[in-house]
Specification:
Helix content: 25-40%
Strand order of the largest sheet: 1-2-3-4
Order of helices and strands: HHEEEEH
Number of helices: 3
Distance between the termini: 101 Å
Structural class: alpha+beta
Number of strands: 4
Radius of gyration: 39 Å
């Protein structure tokens, strides 16, 4: 094919034209590719729930508290079926308040904790400390 200068195609120009002619073919080849399906997601299972802290106490019955901490240091019946069970150890004192539940048996609905000198202490830490006391074994 003659060019403007009349010499015809040179090797470099012919290669360029061949590459330009391939562009639509390459573009259509890219468009025709199919994405591979994503691998299935791995199913992860939650570890079994281990009760720690307050969830070991809230909802417990008097029998459950005794199994967890041993015999109560104080067990006081209060008005309208309420009951306060107190467990004391060298680190803290825990008061568990039980109220009648639908099941008929009283359950812990609130706990309060303090150090032996009366200062506040984290309730979950107190529960953990009391489960390690000698009476709880």
């Amino acid at each position: 094919m003659p060019t403007i200068d009349g010499k015809g195609d040179t090797g470099q120009q012919g290669t360029m034209r061949s590459l330009i002619a391939l562009i639509p073919l390459l573009a259509s080849a890219c468009a025709a590719t199919v994405d591979a399906p994503a691998p299935p997601l791995a199913v992860t299972r939650s570890p079994p729930m281990i009760k720690t802290g307050l969830d070991r106490v809230l909802g417990q019955t008097a029998r459950g508290l005794t199994a967890l901490f041993g015999e109560a240091d104080q067990d006081v019946k209060e008005a309208e079926g309420a009951r306060r069970m107190q467990f004391a150890g060298p680190i803290c004192i825990l008061d568990a308040y039980l109220y009648p539940a639908r099941s008929g048996e009283s359950e812990v609905t609130y706990v309060d904790a303090r150090q032996p000198d009366g200062r506040d202490i984290d309730r979950a830490s107190c529960v953990a400390a009391l489960t390690r006391r000698k009476e709880a074994r």
